[in-house]
C-alpha cells in the first residue's frame, strides 16, 4: 500500500487511498459533494464505492452516457447546468468515478465550473489508472478530434483500487495494457520485459505493475508538468494513434477502436519510423511488433484511409509553427522529441504494419 505525494494532493493505492479520501472529506468540509459516473460505472462501480465511504452528507449523483463520443461540450453544458441547478458552489467537490472519459471530462468540468472547484479521480479502468487519471490533463474532444479543448490541473487525490478491474471486459483491460507497454518503451527495457508477463488472472502481479506504471508517469509529469520536454514522451505512438482513433470514430466503414487498440498501432508505426530516423535496433522493432500483435488484432488500412489519417495529423496537440512533431526512440528509454517525419515514411510504416 503506497501513496505518492504531489504538488496538489496525492496518488493513493487501495486501502491507503480510502483512508486518504475520508481524511480529505473531513478536513475540507465541502459544502456539497457530487459523484460523476457514466451509465456503466453507475451500475458496476458505484455500489462498491459507496460501500467503502461513509458520507456525513448524502452526495448528489451526476450521470453521463458512456463512450468517447460523449466526451464533448454538449455533455459539459448538461453537467454544468445540473451542478448549478443543484446548488454547487466554489466549495463543492466533484468525485469522478469512471474510466478515462469520465476522469478527463469530469476534471474539465470541475476546473471550469465557478472558475474551479476541487475534484478527485477514482479510475475504474486499467487505462484510466495508468494514464488518464494521473498527470492533470483534463479535457474534451472537438467533434471527432481527440482532446482539443482542455486544461492542466491536478486533482486533489487519485485513488487507485484494482478491485474495479473485476468489472471490465477483456478488451478494456487490453486497451489499458497498451499504455503500460508504452511506459516500458519510453522508460526502460527492463520494465518492458516485466510487462510481457502481464496477466489479469494474477491480481497481485497486476497491482505491482500498475503501481510501477503510475510511478513512471508521475515521475515524468512532476519533472515536466506543462509538457515542454520530457512529458512529450508520454505521447509516444499517439501522434498517429490519435489520428487513427479519430478516423475510425468518424468513418462509417471502419470499426471504432478503443484508445489502446489505436495507440498500439501508432506505437508499431512510430517504432518502425524510429528505426529509419533514429537507428532504433531492428531486432527490437521485431520484438515490439510481435508483442503488440500478440495482444491486439491487426487492422487494415487502404491508401485512402492512410491519406485521411495523415490529414488528421495537423490537429495533433504537439504541433508547433505548422510542423507536425513526432516522439521517436533511439532505444528503450532513450527518446527524441519534436521529430519531423515525411509523409512517404508514414506510408512505409503502414506498409510494414500491413505486411508483418
TrEMBL record:
Domain 3-dehydroquinate synthase C-terminal, chain residue ranges per copy: 176-319
Annotated GO molecular function terms are: 3-dehydroquinate synthase activity; metal ion binding; nucleotide binding
Give the top-rank taxon of the lineage listed in the UniProt record for this protein.
Answer: Bacteria
Q: What Enzyme Commission number(s) appear in the record?
A: 4.2.3.4
Cite the Pfam families for this sequence: DHQ_synthase, DHQS_C
Q: Name one GO cellular component term.
A: cytoplasm
Which keywords does this Swiss-Prot/TrEMBL entry list? Cobalt, Lyase, Metal-binding, NAD, Nucleotide-binding, Zinc
* GO BP terms: aromatic amino acid family biosynthetic process; chorismate biosynthetic process
> Top EC class per UniProt?
lyase
**Cofactor names:** NAD(+); Zn(2+); Co(2+)
Which InterPro entries is this protein grouped with?
Dehydroquinate_synthase, DHQ_synth_AroB, DHQ_synth_fam, DHQS/DOIS_N, DHQS_C
Q: Please state every residue range assigned to the domain named 3-dehydroquinate synthase N-terminal.
A: 63-174
Task: Describe its function.
Answer: Catalyzes the conversion of 3-deoxy-D-arabino-heptulosonate 7-phosphate (DAHP) to dehydroquinate (DHQ).
Identify the NCBIfam families for this entry.
aroB
Q: What is this protein called?
A: 3-dehydroquinate synthase
**Species assigned in the record:** Cochleicola gelatinilyticus
